[in-house]
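Per-residue structure
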Amino acid sequence: MPTQVKNLLKTYNLKATPQRITIYKIMKNLGHASADLVYKEIGDQFPTLTVATVYNVLESFVEVGLIKRRLSSNNKMFFDVNTYEHCHLYCQKTHKFLDFDDTDLMKMVHEYISKKNIENFELSTIDIQLSGYIKN
């Protein structure tokens, strides 16, 4: 996997540093995470690495389209490693995101919105998030 991650980062014109490789691998494993969560996962691998550096690396991934941002209801920034168009389930208690793939819903929303003439607005993405609570 390290070689695959190195090649992926190079594809996005990002230098494949050990920190970036590790942060991306953690994101790939977690799926959705904040900089704090990624920092906790790094553990002792990079003792001089700060949460701010982790956040900056994640932001550099966002800038090139490698991951996307997700904002939680408590205003904490999360990141999503899955960049394809999909919906999210958001637990308001645990602040966890789960992917919810529903192509019919996405198609229906796209068709509905395409029929509307929203003045002075150009649509770039549709972001559907269902908020509630994960049942035990």
In short: The chain has five helices and six strands. Residues 87-132 form a domain with the Dna Ligase; domain 1 fold (CATH 3.30.1490). The first helix runs from residue 2 to 11.
